[in-house]
Amino acid sequence: MAIVRQSKKRDAMLALLRGTDRHPSAEQVYRALKPDYPGLSLATVYRNLAQLCEQGLALRVGTVNGQERYDGHTRPHSHFICNRCGRVADLPQLSPGEGCVERLGVQYGFTAQRCEFVIRGLCKDCEDF
Amino acid sequence: MAIVRQSKKRDAMLALLRGTDRHPSAEQVYRALKPDYPGLSLATVYRNLAQLCEQGLALRVGTVNGQERYDGHTRPHSHFICNRCGRVADLPQLSPGEGCVERLGVQYGFTAQRCEFVIRGLCKDCEDF
DNA sequence: ATCCTTAACAGGAATGATTCCTATTAAGCT
DNA sequence: AGCTTAATAGGAATCATTCCTGTTAAGGAT
Q1: pLDDT by residue (tens digit) across A85-127?
Q2: Interface test with B, best of A61, A77, A94, A110 (most B CBs within 10 A)
Q3: pTM as predicted
Q4: Does A62 touch chain B (CB under 8 A)?
Q5: I need a surface site. Which of A3, A31, A124, B74 has the fewest CB within 10 A?
Q6: Cα(A88)–Cα(A69) distance, rounded to whole angstroms?
């Protein structure tokens, strides 16, 4: 992998991701930082989000309404996604049982790198249409 | 919901989805059926896939390389997705424990509609670079 | 069997998220 | 201070998906 240099904008992006539980999209990250970094480019946001994910400092949660959502909290946990408003909420890690994934890997011929557990439904605010 | 009329093309799409375990993308469905339905339009594929999902006859598995993948098998089961070749494979249902999702729904304020468990990693063919 | 309403459709344009490209700037070693 | 090249802006390009318009056909009503 190439050398990673210091970058104030990337640092700010990571700080933003770590300081929220809202799992923002690239566009939302862009809009949040634009006031403080007027020269910020959307391409830079995408490039740095991709790099943070490669470095294991951020995670892609999944796409909501066609937009990828990002998470700066990398300790194992699961997510709830509201099918109406698109809100993404953290849940405690839901594990399918000790050693289960490894067993499946052997049985089906794969090596697991990550497990994602997502519950989709309606959040309290959206339940009553 | 509006009335649903009979449609040979939509029937063919559902039959295709039910007859494979490859979880094709819209583009792949289009290419598979185009020979038998020369007048088939990509827009029709997208429209009918969306409708099948609304009717609960098909499921969106998740996006791989920017393309949504579809599954015509609606009995609860989980998926493995290869991070290199994009292959999507079926796994037995991985459940986080009896009543667990309901309990979380009460605790965190949501009503679950679907649970997705996805394992990402490398399939046997892609393991050795 | 024919008429009517409107779902299904083709084909092409539009949208919109993401990536690519080119020239410029700036980390951070030497 | 000089050098290499990562980081960047800004805009163009890509590409999956959706939208739009006019046409066709499913299937109930006559």
Answers
A1: 999 999 999 877 888 999 999 999 999 999 999 999 999 999 8
A2: A110
A3: 0.93
A4: yes
A5: A3
A6: 8
